């Protein structure tokens, strides 16, 4: 369910949002910026879903293991 919210912002910000984001897309843009700061469950659920993806985890482990060798060859 969506709720309407009225915000007051500087005119320059508003003009920039309309120019860069586009009219009728500002709400979606702002929601995307704000969501991770106020809806923590989505973030935690995302981490759970990523860790359940065995192929992704296997690829990530292989990448991490491969980069460890790069560090040991660096000159100090």
Characterize the overall form.
elongated
Number of helices: 4
> Which spans have pLDDT < 50 for at least 5 consecutive residues?
none
Rg, nearest Å: 21 Å
Describe the main β-sheet briefly: none
Encode the helix/strand succession as letters: HHHH
User: What structural class do helix, strand and pairing data support?
Assistant: mainly alpha
What is the number of beta strands? Answer: 0
Give the terminus-to-terminus CA distance: 57 Å
Mean pLDDT across every amino acid position: 86
The percentage helix is over 70%
Quote the beta fraction.
under 5%
How would you characterize this protein structure?
This protein is mainly α and 76 residues long. The protein has a domain at 40-67. Helix content is 72%, strand content 0%. It is built from four helices and no strands. The chain has helices at 11-20, 26-38, 40-52, 54-72. The longest helix has 19 residues, at 54-72. The radius of gyration is 21 Å and the shape is elongated.
